[in-house]
Amino acid sequence: MILGATSRLARYRASGAGSHPLILWGGLRQKSNSSGRWLERQSNDAHTKQAKTEYYRSRAAYKLIEIDKKYKLFSKRTTNIVDLGFAPGAWTQVAIERMKKLGHKSRILGVDLISCSAPQGSHFIQGDILSRKTHQDIQQFFSEEEAQPVDLVLSDMMANTSGIKDNDHFASMDLCDGAMILSCHLLKEGGSLVMKFYTGKEDQVLLKKMQKMFKKVYRMKPDACRDELREMYIIGVRKNQLTVQELFGE
């Protein structure tokens, strides 16, 4: 059975511990049964080699660098940042670098299902984005700030791929819904959201929700993405004031 957005929202509301059998975050992604080929491809990959040279924790850093170059995500107005699907921490490394270059004090919080050490200058919470408790923990971290304290939400979350395209896509949509719910609650009016998603049947549904939520919405596949993967990024800038109910309403 395919779960629609309304069903996913209901499941979020009902979740206690927040566990869901489909959801495994980026840090738990498997390399498939062809692990030998995967390792060989990794060792020969230009971005992987560059990441080692420049001390990034993964090649994913270059995806965010490219997105930021085009859409100017980081500015002196950016103070509080949430990085969802944090492990192994490459996006947070980029965020720290960008804010240091701007000479601007910031608070950067990484969130992931698995434990991972936070780079110096950032913080980490272990939790599931589909859990209300995780949302509460993130809120608590920024509790000294105003009601909607976050300027930028980054999500490089991806479900553990099963090889069944529809299942992988719908699991990715669940994660996007979790990031958008968090953004409804915590992202400032005028703030930005970047999300990775696995393309499929609900791409237009996702686009319409983002267009409700932001004044400008863009999609792109950075050059650092592997051609054979069905991943893309959706970028929302200049957030509108919107409730969760309005976002998921028909």
UniProtKB/TrEMBL annotation:
Entry GO terms, CC: mitochondrion
Organism of provenance: Suhomyces tanzawaensis NRRL Y-17324
Protein name: rRNA methyltransferase 2, mitochondrial
Sorted UniProt keywords: Methyltransferase, rRNA processing, S-adenosyl-L-methionine, Transferase
Family that this chain belongs to: Belongs to the class I-like SAM-binding methyltransferase superfamily. RNA methyltransferase RlmE family.
Gene Ontology MF terms: rRNA (uridine-2'-O-)-methyltransferase activity
Active site per the UniProt annotation: K196
Alphabetical list of SUPFAM superfamilies matching this protein: S-adenosyl-L-methionine-dependent methyltransferases
Domain (Ribosomal RNA methyltransferase FtsJ) ranges: 56-238
